[in-house]
Design goal:
The structure holds two protein chains of two kinds.
Chain A lengths: L3 E4 L2 E5 L4 E7 L3 E9 L5 E7 L2 E5 L2 E6 L4 E6 L8 E9 L6 E3 L3 E6 L1
Parallel strand pairs in A: 2-11
Antiparallel strand pairs in A: 1-3, 3-8, 4-5, 4-9, 6-7, 7-8, 9-10, 9-11
Chain B lengths: L4 E3 L2 E4 L5 E6 L6 E7 L5 E8 L2 E4 L8 E5 L5 E5 L8 E8 L9 E2 L3 E5 L1
Parallel strand pairs in B: 2-11
Antiparallel strand pairs in B: 1-3, 3-8, 4-5, 4-9, 5-6, 7-8, 9-10, 9-11
Classes of the chains: A mainly beta, B mainly beta.
Chain lengths: 110, 115
């Protein structure tokens, strides 16, 4: 079993829909990262959080440390949001290296 | 520079040859990471630098892989005697501090193909 699990693996939505991607982890962490990887391969850091909730534009990330669970929400989704979304954790025992989930492929249709 | 720069963007090499991949991090970022992503696979950690030292190189898959960082800036990842299973996208990232307290900034990667 992977230490970081994401669901769903694939998600197709219609433009305008509210989207949720989930991430569960089984280890103690110092921080959790949400990354976005576009079809060209470039990776962008969306959020880094260790507690509570963060919001940036239409994106919201939450984390529940007790339940070892994080969610990434996209409001009013748009075709340009189509990408792979990756959850990664910085484990308490591993210093700075990140441990990655398998990613969620999101496709938003117009 | 504006972001993390990697070169070359693409590299095709014959099995058995050595390759060098370069990463130029954001100025002032003390932490530098190498990751790789094989086709259809997730991201895999290779090595982490803090300044010029590498406190964690546990992800290097074999002794054919080595990396160095000089002047707290540019890093090179060297793969000796390349094998077909080394084909992947090699990604570099930098951050002002460790990933436990700083977001990472990724380069666009080097796509390595070993024929």
């Amino acid at each position: 079993k992977n230490e970081v699990e994401q669901s769903p693996q694939n998600l197709t939505a219609q433009e305008g829909e509210f989207i949720t991607i989930n991430c569960s982890y089984s280890v103690g962490i110092s921080a959790l990262h949400w990354l976005q990887q576009h079809p060209g391969g470039g990776i962008v850091s969306l959020f880094m959080l260790s507690s509570g909730k963060k919001k940036h534009g239409r994106l919201i990330a939450t984390i529940n440390i007790q339940e070892k669970h994080s969610s990434l929400h996209i409001t009013a989704s748009h075709p340009r949001d189509s990408a792979v979304y990756i959850c990664a954790v910085s484990k308490e025992t591993s210093g700075s290296r990140l441990t990655f989930g398998e990613g969620t492929q999101l496709t938003v249709n117009p | 520079g504006a972001g993390v720069s990697q070169s070359p963007s693409n590299k095709v090499t014959e099995k058995g040859k050595d390759v060098e991949l370069r990463c130029d991090p954001i100025s002032g970022h003390t932490a530098l990471y190498w990751y790789r992503q094989s086709l259809g696979q997730g991201l895999e950690f290779l090595i982490y630098f803090q300044g010029n030292s590498a406190p964690d190189k546990s992800g290097l898959p074999s002794d054919r892989f080595s990396a160095e960082r000089t002047g707290g800036s540019v890093s090179t990842l060297t793969i000796q005697r390349t094998q077909q299973e080394d084909s992947a996208v090699y990604l570099c990232a930098s951050s002002p501090g460790g990933s436990y307290n700083s977001p990472l900034h990724f380069g666009n990667g080097t796509r390595l193909t070993v024929t």
